[in-house]
Amino acid sequence: MIGAALKTKIFNNYSLIEWNDLLLNFDPTINYTSWFLNYVEVLNSTSEIQNHTFVVYDENVPISIVPLYIEKISGLSQISMGQEPVYAPIFNKNISISEKYHDYLLKKISDIALQNQCLLARFHASPLLNYHLYPFEYLNAGYVENIFYPDWYIFKSKFSFVLNLLNTKEHIFNRIRKGHRSNIRQTIKIANLIVIDKNTYTEELFSRYISLYYKVKGEKRNIDAFRLDSIAIKSDLQFIMICEYNNEFEGAIAFHTYNNKARYNSSVQLYNKNIRIHPTHFLLWSGIEYLQKKGYELLEIGDQVKENNQFSVSLKEKNLSHFKAGWGSDVISNIKVQKEFKNV
After folding, report:
1. How many domains, the chain?
2. 34: containing domain
């Protein structure tokens, strides 16, 4: 019988030290850290989200970490996080992964979905990962690639831009689109760079960043999420680059970092037609320089979206993808999958 010798242990039964020790067996991104797994719950508290993350063991050997969240959207349950796909299961980097493990965890996910009357489950694998469940294994289990609702940028993308930070700074800069380079040089001349990281963090700086965020995006993010952001910064899991002009914050980018891999997580920018600066270009380049100095290997800049006959791509989405395409990155597969449970 499949999985007869296998067992699971839920995330909530680990201490922080135990979870950190567990991660040493894997090659994870920040999305598998204890901090992030808790962060998802705080970010999506309005959807009554519950953390069902578990680890698969064969005897006493950890085989796979399986992030799993169940939330309610319009009163109905589904496996997702803020409607976005949950990060794919990852596997122990030190052992040979057999098909029985794939079958076991996919069945376990389906069992949990049915027990909780979930209408669907969504997953995707970070392009920064090596040891994860591949798309064809989902497809063999009844998942499909195209997700049409909600009509969001993330669901229209099947590839991501990933920058190899092991190249020289000169090589990276020369591969950046000419217009981007011009915007970077122009902004460097007149703007000031402020870095909020483990070594420079102050409550005053972070409060000013929160004020900028709310000014640009409104109060979409609750204060508990910002509190966890501050913990991440102090734990070296996040840093924030800020563009200052005439003593005012004009833009910011937050980067997530872990295991020599980084991700452009979010950005905010004020648009002032009277100031000829380009905060996002300036800050992304500054982030690249910072990560190189720290010895990071990869930076995920974001998703690629192209016009096709399956999805309608807005001008705003095209412009965002065009911006992300201009940094000389490699294009890496980043497919999202979904399975609907018809008998719920």
Report:
1. 2
2. 6-149+335-340
